[in-house]
Amino acid sequence: MGNRIHNLADVQTDNIGEDTMIWQFCVVLKGAKIGKNCNINCQVFIENNVIIGDNVTIKPGVQIWDGVTLEDNVFIGPNVTFTNDLIPRSKQYPVEFSKTLIERGASIGANTTIVAGNTVGMNALIGAGSVVTKDVPANTVWFGNPARQKGTINEKGEILYI
After folding, report:
1. CA-CA distance, 74 to 43, in Å (whole number)?
2. CATH of 1-85+92-162 among 1.25.40.10, 3.90.220.20, 2.160.10.10, 3.90.1170.40
3. Chain centre to alpha carbon of residue 5
4. Residue 100's Cα: distance from chain center in Å?
5. DSSP states of 123-158 as a string?
6. What proportion of the chain, given as a percentage, has pLDDT over 70?
7. What is the mean pLDDT of residues 9-35?
8. pLDDT per position as a tens digit, 58-105
9. Nearest of 42, 66, 47, 52 to residue 17 by alpha carbon
């Protein structure tokens, strides 16, 4: 079927898997790698040193900066914010940006902020509006500011609160 890239998107990379849809007003820089069967909604910015796996959904208003990796089957809700510099200063850049990893099957709720250098484990669920300031173990449920573990989630998507 091929990729479907909206004519109002600015997509500079050729490294996009089959059946990925990129909607209008997106900017994808040349070095980005995007897997197959992804849905990248409108108004998403993807920087150069970004890896996106297969079957990933990215809702509108998300910026994915250098150093962020989204593994397969990840869901990124609307207006999720990633950071990549723990000490940002105008016109001053680190030698290397902090790495952030969102592991396979994790879901990040709307308006969540993921602070640079953290890993969200496999199948973890982050509730809307959370601020993730440390690593999140696999199969756990976190929310709040700062986000704290509130439960676990099984393979059926059932939550057991603690």
Report:
1. 18
2. 2.160.10.10
3. 19
4. 9
5. T-EE-TT-EE-S-B-TTEEEETTTTEEEEEE-TT--
6. 99
7. 98
8. 999 999 999 999 999 999 999 999 999 999 999 999 999 999 999 999
9. 52
Every domain of the chain and the residues it spans: 1-85+92-162
**Mean pLDDT over the full length of the chain:** 97
* Residues 49, 82: Cα–Cα separation, whole Å: 13
Q: Residue 98 has which token pair?
A: 């902090």
Structure tokens at 72: 């397969």
Cβ within 8 Å of residue 117, ≥6 positions away: 86, 98, 99, 100
Q: Which amino acid is at 98?
A: S
The one-character DSSP state at 97 is: P
The verdict on pTM exceeding 0.90 is yes
Residue 137 has which token pair? Answer: 């173990």
